């Protein structure tokens, strides 16, 4: 029987041939250089079910070294992942195909690393990672979990570099840290894949990211046109193109003129009508002393009871005819017209349906 190593599903160690035989490459020196600024975490935060600290004060130094050692052995940068534009979503075995496609397999094979560089797909990928963090993290395989944190690392770096969409990432990291705290305390230790030290190191990384985002400051540009220089009708058009109420509130804090425009009742009425149905208005109707509808207050009240309408520039698509999940871009559209693509529908466009982040997860619930 061949020796399979620690995990037969992983690519394995890197080996080099020497005069004395094959030797495994050590990459700890490179990782140690990258960890020049070690992140610390208060161990009193992470408690077990008996509200006792996992590590005593005497063992903290030893545990920190061991945790880094385990983390180096599971470095996400050494993993190789697929970059496919489409995959089959098969839920049962057939003559042609054995087994079924899992959520972790789909997450590994679809090209999410490149998708976050596309502004149309960025919000979609972040929302998908947030849903996985809330309920599906433990269902991922070990390789899929490494890929998950690898994609998350690229997202955080992108936000820190271009200063765009920090609020989305803060919400994602908050949900992920809450889930990991619950799992590490003991509720889900039995379902965590890998050493507990690896997960503690991941939690430390998340807390470090949260601190970086908290200290994030947008650099002010002194030269060029600013919002204050735009006419009122253009500022009003900008506000009407926003689909998130918090974005409108934040933009209204920039200048007094934007603050006045952001309180427009027609603006909030249109926003409520875009996200919610009329039946929902009747259940949570809020009137002022003069009998007018408070649309701004209604929007935030409705948001607590009903999910807002999801809006994405681009999403994954699913072919109902041949069960293919894919990114619908120009190159893939050309493949559909050629004979090289596996879709056999006579009219593929009629079979395509956009896949929301929640629908993506539901596709793999058996």
Automatic annotation (TrEMBL):
Q: What is its main location?
A: nucleus
Could you tell me which Gene3D superfamilies the record lists for this protein? 1.20.1280.50
> Can you name a GO cellular component term?
SCF ubiquitin ligase complex
This protein's pathway reads: Protein modification; protein ubiquitination
Q: Which InterPro entries match?
A: F-box-like_dom_sf (IPR036047), F-box_dom (IPR001810), FBX25/32 (IPR040394)
For this UniProt record, the keywords arranged alphabetically read as follows: Nucleus, Ubl conjugation pathway
Single GO BP term: protein ubiquitination
Protein's UniProt keywords contain Nucleus = yes
**Annotated localization:** Nucleus
Where does the record place the F-box domain?
A: 224-271
| PANTHER family the UniProt entry points to | F-BOX ONLY PROTEIN 25, LD30288P
What is this protein's function? Answer: Substrate-recognition component of the SCF (SKP1-CUL1-F-box protein)-type E3 ubiquitin ligase complex. May play a role in accumulation of expanded polyglutamine (polyQ) protein huntingtin (HTT).
Q: What is this protein called?
A: F-box only protein 25
């Amino acid at each position: 029987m061949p020796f399979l190593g620690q995990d037969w599903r992983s690519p394995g160690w890197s080996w080099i041939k020497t005069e004395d035989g094959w030797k495994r490459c050590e990459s700890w020196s490179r990782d140690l250089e990258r960890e020049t600024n070690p992140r610390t975490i208060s161990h009193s935060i992470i408690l077990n079910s008996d509200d006792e600290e996992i590590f005593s004060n005497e063992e903290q130094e030893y545990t920190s070294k061991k945790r880094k050692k385990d983390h180096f052995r599971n470095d996400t940068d050494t993993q190789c992942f697929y970059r496919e534009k489409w995959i089959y979503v098969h839920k049962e075995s057939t003559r042609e195909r054995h087994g079924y496609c899992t959520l972790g397999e789909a997450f590994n094979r679809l090209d999410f690393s490149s998708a976050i560089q596309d502004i149309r797909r960025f919000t979609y990928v972040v929302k998908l990672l947030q849903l996985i963090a809330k309920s599906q993290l433990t269902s991922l395989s070990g390789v899929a979990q490494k890929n998950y944190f690898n994609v998350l690392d690229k997202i955080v770096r992108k936000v820190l570099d271009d200063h765009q969409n920090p609020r989305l990432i803060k919400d994602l990291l908050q949900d992920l840290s809450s889930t990991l705290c619950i799992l590490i305390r003991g509720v889900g230790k039995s379902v965590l894949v890998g050493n507990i030290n690896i997960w503690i190191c991941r939690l430390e990384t998340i807390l470090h990211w949260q601190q970086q985002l908290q200290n994030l400051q947008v650099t002010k540009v002194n030269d060029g046109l600013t919002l204050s220089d735009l006419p009122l009708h253009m500022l009003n058009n900008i506000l009407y193109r926003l689909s998130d109420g918090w974005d409108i509130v934040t933009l209204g804090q920039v200048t007094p003129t934007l603050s006045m425009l952001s309180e427009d009742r027609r603006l909030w009425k249109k926003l409520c009508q875009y996200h919610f149905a009329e039946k929902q208005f009747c259940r949570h109707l809020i009137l002022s002393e003069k009998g007018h509808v408070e649309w701004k207050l209604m929007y935030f009240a409705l948001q607590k009871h009903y999910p807002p309408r999801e809006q994405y520039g681009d999403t994954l698509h699913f072919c109902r005819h041949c069960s293919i999940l894919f990114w619908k871009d120009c190159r893939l559209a050309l493949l559909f017209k050629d004979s090289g693509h596996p879709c056999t529908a006579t009219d593929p466009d009629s079979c395509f349906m956009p896949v929301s982040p929640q629908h993506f997860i539901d596709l793999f619930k058996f």
